[in-house]
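Dear colleagues,

I hope this message finds you well. In preparation for our joint manuscript, I am sending the HTTM domain-containing protein (Cellulomonas uda) sequence together with its predicted structure, so that both groups work from identical material. I would be grateful if you could confirm receipt.
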Amino acid sequence: MSVSAPERRPAVRSRDGRVRALVGTLDARLTAPGPGYRLREVHTLVALVIGLRLVARDWAAIAERPAALTDGLTFVSWLPAALPAWLPVTLAVLGTAGVALVLARRRAHAGFVLAWVCYAVLCASWGSSGKVLHNDVLTVWVAVPLLFARVPRRDQDDERAVVWGWPPRAALAVLALVYWLTGVQKLRHSGIGWALSDNMTWVLRQGTSPHAAGVAQWVADHAVLASGLATGALLLELTAPVWLLWRRTRALFALAVAVMHASIWLFLGIDYSAWVLTAAAVAVPMSLATGRRLEDLRPLRAAIGRS
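The corresponding structure tokens are as follows:
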């Protein structure tokens, strides 16, 4: 006998109630008050990552980009098809100046926005058709919530308020989402075979790493090891929200992704250092208990004492 619509309605209401309760819980955790110093730490560290990317690359090489690669530009479609070499260099200098403002805590919000805009435009111009390359995409996206943060003044570091609490948590949520989507995309396009087939074996064989080509070939010759590497990477990406949900496992996640990306660099020669630094810039400060500051960590105190 079929169930009538009135009999279904309580179940629907119950399910909707659970969804609303879950959303309410997540919203409450995201917007809970936080100390000003925690926002300052995350804000400053992400700005430093942007600054390192701005100074570490020869952005003038953008001027050598073939005109065919500019077809269909989106994010930077307002730029001319052929960029003069001085323009990307100027953007890099302006962005670095913005980072300096953040470090000096003078108009830190304006400095961060300036640095991010210059960095995002340069990253989009570096690739083709306005696409930010995967090496920099995590840093670009994690910084977005911080664009809307009201940075605390020096005398507000110890204050607790919602305005200080939500930006670093939002950056943490974006970090988790990007890693999770990376794993989901692997499953969407290749299925579980991405990890359990000979996919990683062929990736290692075709890699051109100058660092450990012999080791990469040795791992490729052992299918279990190659599959284990792929499975570990996939599981780490898919479980990123779980790692980053709990304070005590956030620093472990930063360490785990550092190991994963270091192995990619070692075996394939692909530089994901921006991902490692961005994950650490957000996850490590957010792993500390309330009342404990980043500068309280012993390695930092020792480094400061030697300086």
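For the figure legend, we might mention the following. Residues 302-307 have pLDDT under 50 and may be disordered. Residues 19 and 25 are 10 Å apart (CA to CA).

With kind regards,
E.M.
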